[in-house]
Amino acid sequence: MIKVLAKSVREYKAASILSPFFVALEVVMECLIPFIISKLVNSIDVAAGATVKMSEIWMYGGILIAMAFASLLFGALAGAFCAKASAGFAKNLRKDLYYKVQDFSFENIDKFSTPSLVTRMTTDVTNVQFAYMMLIRMAVRSPLMMVFSLVMTFVMGGSLGWIFVAVIPPLALLLFLIAKKAMPLFHRVFKKYDNLNESIQENIRGMRVVKSFVREDYEKQKFDRAATDVQMDFTKAERILAWNHPIMQFFFYGVLSTVLFLGSYFILRSNGATSVGEVSQLIVYGMQILMSLMMLSFVFVMLIMSVESARRICEILAEESTITSPENAVTEVENGDIDFNDVSFKYSAAAERYALEDVDLHIKSGETIGIIGGTGSSKTTLVNLISRLYDATDGAVCVGGRDVKDYDLTALRNSVAVVLQKNELFSGTIKENLRWGDANATDEELVEACKLAQADEFIQGFPNGYDTFIEQGGTNVSGGQKQRLCIARALLKKPKVLILDDSTSAVDTQTDALIRKAFREYIPQTTKIIIAQRTSSVEDADRIVIMDNGKINAIGTHKQLLGTNSIYTEVYTTQNKKSNDDMISGGGDNE
């Protein structure tokens, strides 16, 4: 885990090394200061028979001031490098996670879920950042301070130093027991954080639905349950960690009392062999040791909380995309031919049934194919295999005469444009959204694509035209406008295959017909696959594929299927409100 996370340090290695280096120098100064103070106290301890020499006072005073300033400088430098290293490490870690997720296939994303990925890139990274900050500063400072101070206690106090040594084993044992109890609870807490984020994300995304159905109270209760789950486990974990402070305080005051008692005893019994200065500095060193132990306990608490976060982050970084480009990949898609050769597919190896089964379909370049089927008939699953959003479990999917697994992913997906069922626009101008299809597209090309998608007219109606700002998620445009913008964006890719996954469901039938007419006239060489709920959207397709329960039920033209295929006939009858007899005798021409 440490090896995986360490890769994200990169250009901040120097800062990560300099921070503990200056911490070490700061500790040296702080450990020498009590020693010099002891010399200064002894030089003016008249009761012990010392002769006061102003030269010695000035000398020790000057040394103390110089060492104090040096300690301040080293501490400031250590803090500056620590901040730079921890913030830079967190930046790189977020970037590595984000880049990794960008390479994930849909299968990988399905495995982790969106709320979990968001939590890992925010809360978990912040926890690891704080832990890293403590590791390169406090976790270095505390042990060094403890070791140096312990050495000085033996130098100055002899056998009294063993008091501090005796404290460490029982304290370490108690801290270990605390960690053992708390770790499983934090493991559960972060899983519940994912559920909490999911509740928030779902509510915000569906706010219009929530308000239209007046379900605010229900959503509040659902959020309260998720928040209470997090609170309960976090409270249990914090309750265990709370023992850390009283345990440290008990040892702190216990050791301090013991040192004061024995130190006073030795002063009285030694007849001057042990000085007040030595005992007073022994107490100072003892406090430094105990304070170091307390700081270590704080580091320890933070590490316990961050270990689970680090594990979750490493889980993402170690995950390999299930879909990658092969070596010596093909970088050119010759044409829009598509072949499904006995294809079967299921979303996970553990799934009991196939989402698609025994699909055998051959589409010629330039053909227009309509796909009709009920909800859950795997229409979208079928087209997702073409651009390798998922890989077929059995059989082979070919585009341009080559297996899609032979292609470079970028080349394949640039040749297969998909307007997904859930249209997404991003915050920015209309031009910026359209140029997702082609970053180098000219303004004229943008207008041409929008005209084909029947979007130019409403865009020109906006006060700022193509420079109109689109709010996040496209909330300031209608569903039909959003769909047409997404179609225009796909057309700018100049694809060999264009897939419309129910992408005209929010436009009226006349606009839908105009879009299909533009496709026939202006992009005849492009293979067009139209998934639709309305039969009117696919009536003029070269062939219509009927999907049912993950299998191809029938393939044919509108006239061939009308009256011979029960699924198509039922859909058509329902939508056009005609009797079967009228429909069969009329030949089915609707437009």
Task: Describe, in plain words, how this protein is organized in 3D.
The chain has 591 residues and is of the alpha/beta class. The protein contains 21 helices and twelve strands. It has helices at 2-6, 13-43, 54-103, 106-112, 114-136, 138-157, 161-205, 207-212, 216-241, 244-270, 276-318, 379-384, 409-415, 430-434, 443-452, 456-460, 479-491, 509-522, 558-561, 566-576, 580-586; strands at residues 338-345, 356-363, 368-373, 394-399, 402-403, 416-419, 428-429, 469-470, 497-501, 527-531, 543-548, 551-556. The strands form three sheets. The chain has a six-stranded mixed β-sheet. The protein has a four-stranded antiparallel β-sheet with strand order 2-1-4-5, with no helix packed on it. A two-stranded antiparallel sheet has the order 7-8. It is elongated. It starts with a helix and ends in a 5-residue tail after the last helix.
- Report mean pLDDT, rounded to a whole number: 84
CATH class of the largest domain: Mainly Alpha
SS elements, strand count: 12
Secondary structure: helix percent: 55-70%
Radius of gyration: 36 Å
| Class of secondary structure makeup | alpha/beta
User: How can the largest sheet be summarized?
Assistant: 6 strands, mixed
Quote the beta fraction.
5-15%
- Spell out the CATH superfamily of the largest domain: ABC transporter type 1, transmembrane domain
- Summed up, the domain count is 2
SS summary, helix count = 21
CATH fold node name of the largest domain: ABC transporter transmembrane region fold
**Spatial order of the strands in the main sheet?**
6-9-10-3-11-12
Low-confidence stretches: 578-591
